[in-house]
User: Fold Chemotaxis protein CheW from Mycoplana ramosa.
Amino acid sequence: MTTFKTAGFAGETLEIIAFRLHDQEFCVKTTTIREIRGWAPSTPIPHSPPDVIGVMNLRGTVIPIIDLAHKLGMKSTEANERSAIVVAEVHNMVVGLVVDRVSDILTIRADQIQPVPEVTTSFDKVYAEGIIAHENGMICFLNLARMFKERDVEEMAA
Assistant:
């Protein structure tokens, strides 16, 4: 088995927050997360990108709410009372990510992160930092900074 030294993570432990989208497990570093909120409806914005559900008021600040499943190329999330909004900071902007539910907060060793296997030549691995083999299954480790390029974040804010 090949271990994967993610840039800047070699020999470290990382705290991650794991969440589910359509029965698949994903995670991000906790350092990017500001808070986790229960589902609340957002206000739609005309002509917004397809992955932007709308905006919501977070203690006086209007933030975009992103359908993370759609952003990842999956079927859009049908939000319900078990859904959550993971509030993250990306490129100095706060965004809300709709997930089916938050699973766990875990501490992992950097050497547990393995590279994403080459699936097809058309598969874009840029969103995934790697894969974590966990006792409850595989967790796809997402890189929010690469998922939301600065230009995209600026467009959401406009």
